[in-house]
Amino acid sequence: MQGLFFETDTGVRYVLRFLVLLLGFWTAWRTGKAVAEGWQHYPTVIVYTLLLGVAMRFLHYALFQGPFINPFYYVIDVAVLLVFATAGYRVRRTRQMVDNYYWLYEKTSAFSWKNKD
Questions:
Q1: pTM of this prediction?
Q2: Which residues touch 86 (CB under 8 Å, ≥6 apart)?
Q3: Cβ neighbour number for residue 73 with a 10 Å cutoff
Q4: Over the range 29-43, which residues count as b (16 or more CB within 10 Å of their CB) and which as e?
Q5: Which residues have CB under 8 Å from 47's CB, separation 6+?
Q6: What is the DSSP string of 34-67?
Q7: Which of 27, 43, 48, 65 is 20 to 30 A (C-alpha) from 79?
Q8: How far apart are CA 112 and CA 107, in angstroms?
Q9: pLDDT beyond 60 at 29
Q10: How many Cα neighbours within 13 Å face the side chain of 83?
Q11: CA 1, CA 95: separation in Å to the nearest integer?
């Protein structure tokens, strides 16, 4: 991709990296939300995030010539993606519990609920 847009594509490369990161964060959020919508348990979020980490490593390898098989970068990718996936899962699960069981639970924050008094 070097030289595709400009003679030196460092600016374009930074924009593409930013877009890939946004894509990964959004995908992780939607993954957590989808798991919650299916009423599945949290370990499913972890499994899907591990797979999403492989996909993100591949994008970094294919687009930016980064290392594909590197445990250090894979763990960093998975850790950051897991934060977004967990947030998506908890936000959706809180909304489910409060909306579906409104007589039992009330929302205490975007990530939690409690029993009604």
A1: 0.86
A2: 32, 42, 45
A3: 17
A4: bebbbbbbeeeeeee
A5: none
A6: HHHHTT--HHHHHHHHHHHHHHHHHHHHHHH---
A7: 65
A8: 6
A9: yes
A10: 6
A11: 43
> What mean pLDDT do residues 40-45 have?
97
Average pLDDT over residues 9-19: 81
- Tell which phi-psi region holds residue 3, choosing left (phi > 0), alpha (psi between -120 and 50) or beta: left
Residue 66 has which token pair?
A: 């980064």
Rounded Cα distance between 31 and 52, Å, is 9
Question: Whole-angstrom Cα distance, residue 3 to residue 21?
Answer: 22
Q: Please count the CA atoms within 13 angstroms of the CA of 15 that sit on its side-chain side.
A: 5
Q: What DSSP state is assigned to residue 66?
A: -
Helix (H, G, I), strand (E, B) or coil at 113: strand
Beta partners for residue 105, in sequence order? 115
Please give the average per-residue pLDDT across 59-65, as a whole number: 90
